[in-house]
Design goal:
With about 80 residues, the protein is mainly α. It contains 3 helices and no strands.
């Protein structure tokens, strides 16, 4: 069982656009905080992440979220 403060911190970690990468493949890794959230908190994190991406895109001159920029970088670099 987590405290409300711990739960909020885990959600914030999941919502963050930052992802560690596998040192061998350089592929992004899932946030370990995701596994520590229950189903309701995962749904809350999904909604918060969705809203964050909308806000990021609204602030970006190209109208893209950080996720979209990362995908485009990977495509341009020829990464799967």
């Amino acid at each position: 069982m987590t405290t409300p403060a711990e739960r909020e911190l885990l959600i914030e970690q999941v919502v963050s656009a930052h992802r560690a990468t596998d040192p061998r493949t350089l592929a992004p890794l899932a946030s370990p905080a995701f596994a520590d959230l229950d189903e309701a908190a995962r749904a809350e994190a999904f909604e918060a992440a969705s809203m964050s991406r909308v806000l990021e895109a609204a602030l970006d001159p190209a109208g893209l979220s950080t996720t979209a920029h990362a995908v485009l970088r990977a495509i341009r670099a020829g990464k799967p």
